[in-house]
Amino acid sequence: MRKEKILNFMFLGKPAFVLSAVLIVVSIGALVTQGLKLGLDFTGGAQVEVSFDKTADLEPIREMLAEQGLQNPIAVYFGSDNDVLIRTQGAMEDGALTEVRQRLAELNPEAEVELQRPNQEDSDYVQILMITGLDITTVRQAGLLSADYYGRVDYRAVDQGVQVLLEKTLDAGYTDYLLAQLAQVNDSGVTLVRSEFVGPQVGNELRDDGGIGLLVALLMVMVYVAVRFQYKFSVGAVLSQIHDVIIVMGFFALFQIDFDLTVLAAVLAVVGYSINDTIVVYDRIRENFPKLRRADTVEVINVSLTQVYERTLITSLTTLMVLTMLYIFGGAMIQGFALALIIGVTVGTYSSIYVAANLLLTMKLTREDLLPPEREEAEVDQMP
Fold first, then answer.
1. CA torsion, points 30, 35, 39, 42, in degrees to nearest 10?
2. What number does CATH give the domain 3-38+201-370?
3. pLDDT for 5
């Protein structure tokens, strides 16, 4: 390769370090101050799949859900245009409790409500609402919960206040109420396909297992590169992967985009994609050190990057084209996954050139670091 064709990548080495430092500081700041907006997979919550008799119009459905008392509800197509998946953080009963509290506040701002379990004497009921701050006549006339959705509803005055005894749980009753609202909004019949609840404990386990999986992936990368190359390459590779992961997660924290299992899977994929680019760069650097005996480390790295940058850019651009199409046309369920990969591939391409290679200069990589260890004198004497 002629000298004039060699691109001076390391000319931008220091500005690239400054840019990386700024991105890392902003990302860590967002993670510390705002935190990740964890999705249903990690926080626990409810999801309901419904099927309409005709094509579902998501916009009015989403507007209706936003007016309910559910926590961060979302509605997306699930399979066909007639099937809709509704997800909310927390339980469905949160919507019922929100409506009850709003109605009680209109009657008496100091009124309070809490859930109680029925005792053996109330075996005909599955849930009890304890209301304080109002008398039984006012509570009965308020019509807080309709028998159409909650089954038999009875009232009982006790020393603490008024008990509202329910034949159906708030969760089941509010689900039926929500189905009626969905049928009205979409002007079609609606059928409940399934209703599930992910408990917070399961969400915590998924979060912890995901974090452990990420750490194990980085550890395995470090071990592989140390064996395949040399420890300075290993440190550089892992630090560049950490750089990519922090920036991706910081982006989601900064803009408060839902972080769920699909996004975590994308982050792990980013680690694999980025290390692939980094290994290509490192392998070429290692090959060029013996070939370019008169060149210093900066020149060797520039030559190596010049030889591989076209391959790296073409691979990244074609990948980004596919990911962009997934983000635009893949639907809401896969948008977070595609977005995380778009950011990760972009940052990973940059880091394989300006972070991984730059770190080798920072650690003062020399030709001697890549030479095989000298044999002991005893071993040399024993040779024939």
1. 140
2. 1.20.1640.10
3. 75
